[in-house]
From TrEMBL:
Domain CzcB-like C-terminal circularly permuted SH3-like: 409-469
Name of the protein described by the UniProt record: Efflux RND transporter periplasmic adaptor subunit
Annotated region described as Disordered, given as residue ranges: 129-148
GO CC terms: membrane; outer membrane-bounded periplasmic space
Source organism of the structure: Jiella pacifica
Length: 497
């Protein structure tokens, strides 16, 4: 009994759907006739299915072609490819795909959306191959999707296809909130907030003492904390040794042989006799019973040790004074921030006891030692104190300007992507093209980051939607391209079904 296609409903349905209705209209075609047409007895079911999906022409034999073969793909249309002839597990040969693109297209590939469907027409540009959207070393000669349903990204021929350059369609850019800014030269810096304490400027401290034994006859009405002026009397002393040297100096004066550089005059100066007392001896020709010591500078009395009637030995400190018109603020800077602070950096100090007021200063010294307990380094800051409001041991909130101090090539902080092992910025090459560029970063400021190497003034860098469309996909692919150079002809990576 002759078997016909109409006797098998399933075969008729497949024929009608796959062959555009042609075979459905041939109600009288028998299996034997199909076998005769396909050129091999018993091959009708297999070759018919392959003819329906377009994998081979219908007829006694397929017309030979001399066009080069690009690759071979699975005859069932699954996303499996090979760079050389291959057979399936059941012994069927992979189908060749020729250079003119006329080779068979699988149902899976035909169903996958092409980049032109997603991003718009590609014009006259020819696609070289498609690369994995996640940056994996996997390419495809035809449009396809990965295991997560993401479209492979087309790589076009022509001068625009440069090493490491990523091309994004205008439609996708608009959806990502893309922004770019021009690289410029700026002073990069940021305030470093650290605690500090007010200390006296050691160079502004003086003491009042004698160089010989003496007796205190009278102490001026000044106490610890009192403000004194330079030349103000502090204490009156009587010293037998100083009196004897004074008497010798007066005798020499009267004999006409005395001089300030002579023996008696030199002895008076060595004993620290005040200049006023020597002048009085020259004027009156008499040795004063006692001599007055005055304040050597303007300042505050830090210490008063002199008491009426006491005896003081040579070298004893009677008064300690400090000029507080300039003070130090000693700040504790964390060890990791020391490298960002320069000598001469500008400083602003605020104090809890003086709300609303700030004092300016400059870093004068970085102490050459790290505290083992706090892992901080002390920095000395000179601050002017004209009103005397800053007192020793006051707490300060110190803001130190860190940075380059001069204009350097800088990019916004958001433009720098830190991958852990290196820092990268994305250059905007125009026309939807982007290039990842490794950079050497310098000081990181409040808003800007100094770039020592990698970009130049006038370049444009991406500052918004840095990951370009799919956060990780395109950027990871571009970063991978920095380390994996694409071959001139993309390899036909075999994909697993």
């Amino acid at each position: 009994m002759m078997r016909t296609v109409l006797g098998g409903l399933t075969l008729v349905a497949v024929v009608a759907a796959g062959a555009g209705g042609y075979w459905a209209g041939q109600a009288g075609v028998t299996v034997a006739r199909l076998e005769e047409m396909l050129g091999s007895p018993g091959a009708a079911p297999v070759r018919l299915e392959r003819a329906i999906v377009g994998e081979m022409p219908v007829g006694p034999k397929a017309a030979p072609t001399s066009l080069p073969i690009l690759y071979w793909r699975d005859p069932d249309g699954t996303p499996s490819y090979s760079a050389k002839p291959k057979t399936t597990d059941d012994g069927r040969e992979f189908v060749p795909v020729h250079e003119d693109g006329a080779g068979p297209a699988s149902a899976a590939v035909a169903a996958a959306p092409t980049p032109a469907m997603v991003d718009g027409a590609t014009g006259d540009r020819k696609v070289r191959y498609y690369r994995n959207p996640m940056g994996l070393p996997d390419t495809s000669p035809v449009p396809k999707r990965d295991s997560m349903g993401m479209d492979y990204i087309p790589v076009y021929e022509g001068p625009e296809e440069e090493e490491g350059v990523v091309t994004i369609s205008p439609g996708r850019l608009q959806r990502t909130g893309f922004r770019s800014e021009q690289v410029s030269r700026q002073v990069v810096g940021r305030p470093l907030r650290v605690p500090g304490v007010v200390k006296l400027d050691e160079r502004m401290v003086s003491v009042v003492a004698t160089r010989a034994d003496a007796f205190v006859e009278e102490v001026a009405d000044v106490t610890t904390g009192s403000a004194v002026s330079k030349g103000q009397p502090l204490v009156r002393l009587y010293s037998p040794e100083m009196a004897a040297a004074g008497a010798q100096y007066v005798i020499e004066l009267k004999s006409g042989g005395a001089a300030r550089s002579g023996g008696a005059g030199l002895k008076l100066r060595n004993l620290g006799v005040p200049e006023e007392a020597i002048t009085e001896m020259e004027r009156t020709g008499k040795v004063p019973q006692s001599m007055t010591w005055t304040a050597p500078r303007d300042g505050l009395v830090l210490e008063r040790a002199a008491v009426d009637g006491m005896m003081t030995e040579a070298g004893d400190v009677l008064f300690r004074l400090a000029d507080v018109s300039r003070v130090w603020v000693v700040a504790d800077v964390p060890e990791r921030e020391v490298g960002s602070v320069r000598l001469g950096s500008t400083v602003t100090a605020a104090f809890r006891g003086l709300p609303g007021r700030t004092f300016d200063g400059r870093v004068d010294l970085v102490y050459p030692q790290v505290s083992p307990e706090t892992r901080t380094v002390k920095m000395r800051i000179e601050v002017t104190n004209p009103d005397g409001l800053l007192l020793p041991d006051m707490y300060a909130d110190v803001g130190i300007d860190t940075g380059t101090g001069e204009a350097v090539v800088a990019v916004p902080n958001d433009a720098v992507l830190d991958t852990g092992s290196r820092q990268v910025v994305i250059l905007d090459r125009g026309g939807g093209r982007f290039e990842p560029r490794p950079v050497e970063v310098g000081v990181r400021g409040t808003d800007m980051t100094a770039i020592a190497k990698g970009v130049e003034e006038g370049d444009r860098v991406v500052v918004g939607a840095n990951f370009l469309i799919d956060a990780e996909s395109n950027i990871k692919a571009a970063l991978s391209a920095l380390d994996h150079k694409m071959p001139e002809q993309a390899p036909m990576a075999e994909a697993r079904p």
